[in-house]
Amino acid sequence: MNGATGRPASAGTQLFDCRDAYIHALEEMAAKDARVCVVANDSLSSAKLKHFKAKFPERFVNVGIAEQNMVGVGAGLANGGMIPYVCGAGCFLTGRAMEQVKVDLAYSQSNVKLCGMSPGMAYGQLGPSHHSIEDLAWTRILPNMTVVVPADPIETAAAMRYSLVHQGPMYLRISRMPVPRVHADGYEFRLGKAVLLRDGHDVTVIASGVLAARALDAARRLAEHGISARVLNMSTVKPLDRAAVLDAAKTTRGIVTAEEALAAGGLGGAVAEVLAEEYPARMRILGLPDVFAPTGTAEFLLERFGLTAAGIEAVALDLLENEG
Amino acid sequence: MTMAYHAQMGHTGGDLSSADILAVLYLGGVLRIDPAEPQSPQRDRFILSKGHCSGAFYSTLAARGFFPLEQLKTYMDPLSMLNGHPDRNRLPGVEANTGPLGHGLPIAVGAALAARMRKESWRVFALTGDGELQEGSNWEAAMTAQQYGLDNLTVIVDRNRIQQSDFTENTIRMEPLAARWSAFGFAVDEIDGHEADTLLSRFAHLPIEPGKPSCVIARTIKGKGVSFAENQPAWHHGVPTREQLAAAAEELNIEVGW
Q1: Closest approach of chain B CAs to the CA of A40, in angstroms?
Q2: Does the pLDDT value for residue A8 go beyond 70?
Q3: In terms of residue numbers, what domain contains A136?
Q4: Nearest 5°: CA angle at B47, between B27 and B231?
Q5: What is the predicted pLDDT for the residue at A324?
Q6: Cα–Cα distance, B54 to A289 (Å, whole number)
Q7: Which residues lie below 8 Å from residue B233, measured CB to CB, with a gap of 6+?
Q8: Which of A180, A309, B197, B209 fits as disulfide partner to A13, beta carbons 3.0 to 4.6 Å?
Q9: Residue A153 sits in the same domain as residue A68
Q10: Given an 8 Å threshold on Cβ–Cβ distance, is B109 in contact with A69?
Q11: Distance of residue A80 Cα from the nearest chain B Cα, in angstroms
């Protein structure tokens, strides 16, 4: 990390706002499929929906500042044969409307796609009320729910295109934190499959979203210590790629998970559940400990909680050094 | 009531206050539905927002032919399709999984928007309780219905004046209820919710006003038809004894079926 500029130190790589890829894909899908529509809660700018509204006014619904209604309206649209994308800040879309997400979508098996915008600590200094660090635990725990956290613009677009053919409710976490590309053009999203970003045999870093690029950087740094780190982009948090987790446990000496969310209940929790039952292995879970974040920019907060290449590197070294 | 007796659980009071409305909608030819094709894309949608009144709802669906009447005998039994609250993935004819209050109207608004987007002529009906309207999500949905001028949507309020613990007006005042719906942009009509002819003629002329969503406030009696249950808050989720069941049947001049 370059602490002074607060930018990921992925040498020579351009940074992207994944929302651009999301809205581009959404507009493309809407142009091809008359069932695609959008439900918004007035956050047209942060969900990048202004152009969609202008282009497809008859398939754009702004329910105003009313998230419970927004999710219920999505369920009704799906009942009526549409494929609604319900887009709003992750913190409100999940927290405010959680019972609707549970009953109207998950329990009902409604074909509704939730796009949780600006998740994690993207809203930085706006504070914990606007952070969405609980969303992965809340959505992952629901039967019938599918949870996807794309790592870069390529995967964001691919996951959006996949969501259109997926039957049933999905939560897509759309980052606004600038991230470098970790996937090549032509990448195809496969639900429930970990993506091997880099192979290694000493330790495995399993990351999602913003942390995927940082995990790659961490692996490069670990290589300088002579440590071979495998990096898995676990963009599908649910259903989890259990085989990839078990293989990592069996063929490397430890697992570090990294996510922009509470350490409890998210990706780390999902990995731990598999390991505890099937192949107990040494692991560390990087995320927010049991606290709400203090005031600071998103980048400052990621650094503070060790959600950086250096943070992942340090935890991996510690894990390997204290093998006992 | 037989179902509630069988399950030793149920919401007798609200079942009886909404039964006439349900009968008119499903058996009076109001809803354009076909039990042989419950998923027909062009069907009218009926959403029971007061999902706890599943006893009356299931009886009506069975009477309309969505499933055999015999199946009512499995109400709330282990692994029954007749869950305490409706499950659309288990039971034909159910449009939405309801139970938690304030969920039905947003779903109904979404369905009405879908019909609009698809340029189709099917209509959407939602039946809510009156105490249920204390849930704020109903009014969020009402504002959306107004904004989009959803005149393919009709909200029916089962105005039985009683919620779980007491009369609504002793709990959280609901009056002036008609004025509230009007203020939220609905065309409102307040009618007797037990008069089949009144209900039929109202539902034959919808929307109440073109360009506006409709709200029919059905004045009803909780526990209707059973003297000892009528207007008694305790019968909100009262379960009859075998003797009370027999007494109710005698009052209604019917036989206890099972």
Answers
A1: 12
A2: no
A3: 18-174
A4: 75
A5: 60
A6: 44
A7: B13, B162, B163, B164, B165, B166, B167, B222
A8: A180
A9: yes
A10: yes
A11: 5
Task: Report yes or no: A109 and A142 within 8 Å, Cβ to Cβ.
Answer: no
Chain B residues bordering chain A (beta-carbon distance below 8 Å): 41, 45, 87-89, 95-100, 102-103, 105-115, 117-118, 124, 136-137, 140-141, 143-144, 147-148
At CA A152, angle to CA A150 and CA A156, rounded to 5?
A: 50
Spell out the alpha helix ranges (H) of chain B: 2-7, 12-27, 54-64, 104-117, 137-147, 168-171, 177-183, 196-204, 242-252
Substitution target in B33, B39, B48, B117 with the highest count of A β-carbons within 10 Å is: B117
Q: Pick the catalytic residue from A27, A28, A58, A67.
A: A67
Which chain A residues have a beta carbon less than 8 Å from that of B39?
none
Nearest CA in chain A to B47: A76
Statement to judge: residues A247 and A304 lie in one domain: yes
CA dist A219 and A207 (Å) reads: 12
Q: For B98-114, how does the pLDDT look when each residue is reduced to its tens digit (9 = 90+)?
A: 999 999 999 999 999 99
What is the three-class DSSP state of B2? helix
Contact criterion met (CB below 8 Å) for B194 and B19: no
Mean pLDDT of A35-40: 98
Whether the pLDDT of residue A155 is over 60: the answer is: yes
How far is C-alpha B214 from the geometric centre of its chain's CA atoms?
15
C-beta atoms surrounding A235 within 10 Å? 31
A6: pLDDT strictly greater than 60: no
What is the per-residue pLDDT across A80-122, written as a single tens digit (0 to 9) for each?
Answer: 999 999 999 999 999 999 999 999 999 999 999 999 999 999 9
Q: Are residues A121 and A203 both part of a single domain?
A: no
Tokens of A152: 């870069």
Binary contact (A108, B103; C-beta < 8 A): no
One-character DSSP codes across B185-235: T-EEEEEETT-HHHHHHHHHS-SSSTTS-EEEEEE--TTTT-TTTTT-GGG
A202 and A169 belong to one structural domain: no
What class has domain B2-252?
Answer: alpha beta
Decide the pairing of beta strands B124-129 and A60-62. Answer: unpaired
Hey, CA dihedral for A247, A249, A251, A254, is it positive or negative?
A: positive
Alpha-carbon gap: B91 to the closest alpha carbon of chain A (Å): 12
Where do the structural domains in chain B lie, given as residue ranges? 2-252
User: In whole angstroms, what is the distance from residue A208 CA to residue A211 CA?
Assistant: 6
How far is residue A322's CA from residue A315's CA, in Å, rounded to a whole number? Answer: 11
Q: Does A74 touch chain B (CB under 8 A)?
A: yes
Q: What is the 3-state secondary structure (H, E, C) of A213-240?
A: HHHHHHHHHHHHCCCCEEEEECCEEECC
